[in-house]
């Protein structure tokens, strides 16, 4: 099972509905909202903290009407690692990538 961040858990819970929606549906909505290429694998990496993509996260929050967490990626990563949860991929935590 994947180790989701708090944001990832919020997204998964919201997708469970009602109405029930899929991650594939969310990917399509994020693509429409941003014009950026997003697929299920990339979104999964965001939800598990392996990738940092502020534009995609903002679009997901807007599409699902999720409140802004108010914490930076670094703050979430530090807290999750201290709690023994998700281990973040430091090679991608600097904002690298196309999103």
Summarize the structure.
The protein is mostly helical and 99 residues long. It has five helices and no strands.
Description:
- There is one protein chain.
- By secondary structure, this protein is mainly alpha-helical.
- It has one domain (6-82).
- Helix content is 52%, strand content 0%.
- It is built from five helices and no strands.
- The protein has helices at 6-15, 23-34, 40-47, 54-64, 73-82.
- Helix 2 (23-34) crosses helix 4.
- It is globular, with a radius of gyration of 13 Å.
- 24% of the residues are buried.
List keywords for this structure.
99 residues; mainly alpha; 5 helices; 52% helix; disordered C terminus
List the helices and strands and how they pair.
Elements: H1 6-15, H2 23-34, H3 40-47, H4 54-64, H5 73-82
Structural class: mainly alpha
Strand content: under 5%
Q: How many β-strands, per DSSP?
A: 0
Overall pLDDT score? 82
Helix content percent band: 40-55%
């Amino acid at each position: 099972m994947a180790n989701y961040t708090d944001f990832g858990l919020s997204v998964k819970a919201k997708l469970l509905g009602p109405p029930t929606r899929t991650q594939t549906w969310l990917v399509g909505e994020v693509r429409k909202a941003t014009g950026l290429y997003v697929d299920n694998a990339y979104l999964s990496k965001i939800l598990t903290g392996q990738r940092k993509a502020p534009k995609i996260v903002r679009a997901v929050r807007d599409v699902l009407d999720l409140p802004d967490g108010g914490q930076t990626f670094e703050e979430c990563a530090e807290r999750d690692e201290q709690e023994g949860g998700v281990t973040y991929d430091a090679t991608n935590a600097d904002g690298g990538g196309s999103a």
